[in-house]
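Support request, please re-run this one:
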Amino acid sequence: MKGVVACPQPRAADVGAEILAKGGNAFDAAIATAFAQMVADPFMCGLGGMGTFQYFRASTGERGMIDFHARAGGKVTPDMWAAESKGRTEISGYSLFDDYRSELGYTSILTPGTVAGFFEAHRRLGSRPWRELLAPAAKLARDGLEMTPFAADFLTRDMMPGIPGGMARVSATEACKRIHLNADGRLYRVGELHRNLDMADTIDRIAEGGADEFYRGALGRRIAADLEANGAFVTARDLTEYRPDCGEPVTGTYRGYTVCSNPPPGSGATLIEMLQILEHFDLGAHDHGSAPHLDLVARAMSVAHVDRNEYLGDPKFADVRTDLMISKERAAMWADKIRAGEFLRTGKEEPQSCTTHFSIYDEAGNAVSCTHTLGTGSGVVTPGLGFVYNNSMKLFDPLPGTRNSMAPGKARTTGMVPTILYRDGKPAIIVGAPGGSVIISAVLQAILNIVDFRMSPVEAVTVPRIHCEGKALHAEARVEGAVCRALASMGHQVRHSPISFDPVMSRAHVVQVDGNTWRGAADPRGGGGVAYAR
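Re-run finished. Output below.
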């Protein structure tokens, strides 16, 4: 066995496995998988997006992060939208405006980081030529892929009040309509072949010229000119000066494992805080899915989100108390409050967003956990380039003076938590998920299911799941009615979904390493593929 790839898009997993089978390492497979994901799920991730990449290099023992968060453009000012703000969505905190300025169109775009991030990963870690790793994605875009149920669902599902639907998103620019609407003006149906020749050409240009072509070359100048001409806040200077952030992961412990996740503005510290709170309780003494089990998990989720909302931000612009959030003392304090029956809720909740993930492991012991995203997609396509830009302006606070107020060069907070758990210094669980702050809940429960309940990876990502960060405990339909009634009697406001495999619960993807046995798992809540290289 040469390696394993787990991600939401089966054909992208195949691409990564093929790179491993040809002698590439986990990092080569990561890059090839990521670009294939951009073709397969063009509103989940893309060249115009952002992400966070955790890696383990077996030859040196190095644990590292490459964060390529999107950053606000140089023309942004903190108070520029304060007077026109219509508030924020009840369950997400997305900023609301009558004209959708932070959600759709050029004004919703932040400086993209995706191409720079993956190019940096290749520079540091890759073993195969960059051009070779991007070639499969360009071929997929030219040959076409069948529309998948999950990709179609995003563009057809009902959105929360104040948020435009899929047709409005696709129709935000004529260039986007031309690519993502069929010849008769409708959205592509499941099973229909979707080609994107413009995106294939753009990937070819990046394959030839690297990140410089996207940010500082002829392609970058074309991007900058389009953004400038249409009122975007991102400038040519923002593109030319963009660099990813490279450093170490945030580190904690859980039941003998070393837990490494991403630093702020990502939510790795929140995940570690939840785990370290729950370490004070014997979860395995309860039946999985019972009210006592879910009560403890929900309370740990809720109190950790209190700290997330209080302390998380871009460390380049705010004092982020990561040390406090991951401290054992803080975990013990929250555990005592949980034992005392206290409820601490923020009243804030976030639905899933357009995001994807992959977990990869290879025969040399290298590992990658990477989450990347478009926000929910701006609907903007520069004519002839074929890719959608992010719309992450909506995640800033339009009011000045807060931790998450907008400012030039600032990154917004994110629920992404690409995570690796180590045992005896080697990767044991590689895990992550797409889906807003629900990512944290999905990753947490996948870890608990493996560590505390001794589940296989497939079981861990399949069993019923809950989410709790604000005023309610959300439970899938498969959580028993009697359990939900018991949780309500304990003081929880239970929202019992009618959907058995609810995609809102996010889609965790796991690789477990146990000696010479590697097992991958893809969440069945939407899409999902595991591919092994032999």
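The chain has a mean pLDDT of 94. The radius of gyration is 21 Å.
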